[in-house]
Amino acid sequence: MIFLHDYESCSEEAVEICRHLNRDFAVLAPESTRPSNPVEGRIPSLNARPGARSWFITADDGQIDPASFGDALKQAEVFLSDIPDPADDRISPFVLLGQGQGGALALMLAVLQREKLRGVVGFDPWVPDWIDEVDLIPEDLSNLPVLLMETDSRQHRFATAVSQFAARLTDSGAAVETGQVSGPLVLNANSTATKWISGLSAR
After folding, report:
1. Which of these, 59, 123, 124, 125, has the minimum number of CB atoms within 10 Å of its CB?
2. Whole-angstrom Cα distance, residue 39 to residue 50?
3. Residue 105: its pLDDT value, please?
4. Cβ atoms of residues 158 and 132 within 8 Å
């Protein structure tokens, strides 16, 4: 599976979330090339720790910058394009997971690269409120498994946009489920998301 990290995070933290999974799960964790602090290395960061990365720019009021969002989506698409075609019998379709900003990209990639996915999981995805103005969702997403998880670690300011986007996915045939995470986000054998992912092989 592939895990896209959160805002002001990095691939190491994504791997840490997954470290309690058993060896049946192979985890890839790509990292954004955008520093959370754009002047990192020249002056101390006031808002982000050294090494922290963000996929796109978000204003203080929560508005997501369309240009940087598009750049991040392209970056993630390029990463996925390097993964062998699942039509090859040696390659299984993968599960795409994302947290926060990474969750938004995971949902977008789910509709753009459906053929490579077994399913998609979004933890508190930062879905832009302007996404309804963009015609991204194809008419047929028949039986694409989608799991949307809310955590109690912070107030989810993108909840309305996520709900609206989920409704559009459902209208296109995606099988959307929801759930909640209590406590810190850690994937292990007993977590709801892990059990959901394991159940995909039976579908």
Report:
1. 59
2. 11
3. 94
4. no
- 3-state SS assignment for residue 169: helix
- Listed in sequence order, the DSSP H helices in 82-188 are 101-112, 159-171
- Helix, strand, coil percentages, rounded to 5, for the chain: 30, 20, 50
Instruction: State the DSSP code for 61.
Output: T
Torsional class of 8: left (φ above 0), alpha (ψ -120 to 50), beta (otherwise) = left
pLDDT tens, position by position, 130-141: 776 666 777 788
Give the pTM: 0.85
Work out the end-to-end distance of the chain between its first and last CA atoms, rounded to an integer number of angstroms.
Answer: 17
Confidence grade of residue 96 (pLDDT, cut at 50, 70, 90)? very high
Distance CA 17, CA 1 (A): 13
Residue type, 110: A
What's the confidence (pLDDT) of residue 153? 57
* Paired residues of 121 in beta bridges: 97, 147
Can you tell me the distance from the alpha carbon of 85 to that of 91, in angstroms, rounded to the nearest whole number?
7
In which element (H, E) is residue 80 found?
helix 66-81
Give the number of other CB atoms < 10 A from CB of residue 193.
19
